[in-house]
Amino acid sequence: MSLLVLFPFLFSLCVLTVRCNPISGLTSLPPSAAKVCTLHNSFEPNFVADGDYVIGGIFPLHYNQEMPDLNSTYRALPVKCNGFDPRAFRWAQTMRLAVEEINLRADLLPNYTLGYKIFDSCAYPLTGMRAALAVLNGLRESDSPMCQGASPLLAVIGESGSAQSIVVSRILQPFRIPMISYFSSCACFTDRKQYPTFFRVIPNDDYQVKAIAQLLVRFNWTWVGLVRGDHEYGRFAVQGLLRELQGTKVCVAYQEMIPLLYNRKRALQIMEVMRLSSAKVVVVFSAEGEMTPFLRDYMTQNITGIQWVASEAWVTASVFTASEFYPYLGGTIGFGIRKGHISRLSLYLQTINPQMYPNNMLVKELWEALYGCDPFALPGSLLPPCSGQESLLEQHSAYMNTSNPRVAYNVYKAVYAVAHSLHNLLLCQLGTGPFQNKSCAQRNNIHPWQLQYYLQEVEFNIAEEKVNFDLKGDSIPYYDILNWQRGKGGNIEFVNVGLFDGTKPAGEELVIQEDRIMWPCFTPQVPVSICSASCLPGSRKAVRRGEPVCCFDCVPCDSGKISNQTNSIECTLCPEDFWSNNDRTVCIPKKVEFLGYDSLGIALTVISMMGACITIAVFAVFFYHRNTVIVRINNSELSFFILFALTLCFLCSLVFIGKPTFWSCMLRHTAFSITFSLCISCILGKTLVVLAAFTATRPGDNIMKWLGPKQQRTIIFVSTLIQVIICAAWLIDDPPSPSPNTQYERSKIILECSVGSSIAFWCVLGYIGLQASLCFVLAFLARRLPGNFNEAKFITFSMLIFCAVWLAFIPAYVSSPGNYADAVESFAILASSFGLLFCLFAPKCYIILLKPKKNTKQHLMVK
Length: 863
Fold this sequence. Notes:
alpha/beta; Rossmann fold; 24 helices; GPCR_3_C; cell membrane; transmembrane; Peripla_BP_I
């Protein structure tokens, strides 16, 4: 049954037994109502003391309970609480000690005494609600006169869990009774509209979740699990942590909830999720009550390697200090509330024994929990009997751990906050008070809302620590960072390894001494909890579809992009003149390539020099045999011109090798075009002479007078001059120049010579092609003319080779970039030059050198 259903029933049952109502000042109810209002059940306080002013205390003296059958047809059985908590029992005794100290002081509440009523909430909201209703009555629940006058209860110290505090605070709110919690850190209590009477001496959970978020980021735990209790404390804490983690690299692998009424089957399901998950860090927002059975079952599952991050609700729980917990909980790190010192606490706790409280069942349960015996054993008892006079020793840490009290210290501060506020209220002078008409509270009729005013304003010191409340009822945000380490006796010790001070500027709150931390499994290294391994420099993160951003794949950067940081989201594009190295981590200057003196360049250079040397050698042969018939009859002057032009053609291919410069680029295209134009012009002249010589033998022909030496030189000069004019216009209008090509191969800069004007470039080649075509046609017409030394057929073959080379050059040149284009052009020059050299001069050299008998006039006249 939900609390919303049970609340009207319990409230209607108990409100008739409430002794007073400070708001409405209700007078006695009608006699008929009094007659029918009878108490059907009892909820007695565990500890009670009378005083001039009474305060209540609610503590989770048990951490579990069995729900009774709520069938309304018969009387419900009392709630049965299980799992005695010595730690919470110590808190209750701390409240009693503080009240007794205050009653003995002469400087605080002189001539007045404090009383108390302490109830058990069983760490359950429903029982906490019943305790709140019971605490509103007289000293005992059986004392239930009708309401009149002010409330005898001025304030309540409690509750432990936030879920219980929400219920208790809302019940106390109509009566405007202030409540000071010693262990409820839920951020929800900052809403003053919903909780106007709530105060606390523990920091707001908003600071704790901020601290935990900074801790996760500090140790690079980007893949974590969240486990919480089924209550408002866990819900608000998880919401706050998720809010703090937004914008960080931390992702949540799973969220699980421990049932409020512990269910082992559900707990085992949670543990299976933890076992299968790759998240090795688990953040837990839970109370000691549900964590105790959960962790006992956890140990049975033999799950190790988990790094626990504990909230303040259970990080200092003494019940987990036993050596059996260490293999599974050792290395736990968490945030504990500020510790303090209570001088008389240890001695006071030792005075509690069954002999002193023979009728108190809590003391009996304490002995059973600490010694495993029954001080009031009866025949048939399940536990062995004991005297009840056993000494309380330090090894009973669950109860006797008083060296660095934390929650108990909060209880101590809460009681003193009430005492100081009440003291200030009693010091009020008539006419200077804070209430209507500057009035003060009546000392014998103090209303709780009047005490609340002074609580809001109170400020005092305990052991050099300032205690006060802000406008939301919160105290100073301060946490100790605790690490669970093995002590000398094998038990777990809470070692302070840092602090979180919420009053410091953002980013400076967390201080950790990492060298003092002991991690799980005795490892000195910080545990790793990630969904995906970090992407090294040279790669980027690619988020997996449908998964959190912490789960990703590492994709290598594309060529030309780099990432020089771990876990880069994007790769950075290198500048235009730079390229990525092989690891994709650094942009390096692009390699500049051109047709240099590498293997290809050396090969072309050797071939070019060989061609030039061969041409010079032919020139020397022809010059030496210049008076022979075969040289003279084939126009030795034109032959020497052709050989000179071919030598230049071979040499001009060298201009294409080496780093392009402004002058070399202009020289490359103009040199080869003019030299080839000169060469083809000479061949054209020779073709015309051959054609004229064989046609002039017919009677009446005088064509040779038009092709004399002067005319031949004129033809050569004019044909070459046209090419020179085209080249001059090219150089003037848009000359070739060095150009870095970054488009063909982005990883390199290919330094090439841009042609400048494309029209001029193709005009130059077209003119050479026109000359070659004309030579070819004329030579083809004269190929069948008689004569042993008719050169027409050799000129035909040379032009065929020349045209074939340059026709093949065009597509090869267009499709080849940079140095390869230069190599193609150089190769075309060399190939066409060799073609002309061998076709035109090889037959003549053969005759001159190897067949000198054929180099005679008689042999020429045979045909």
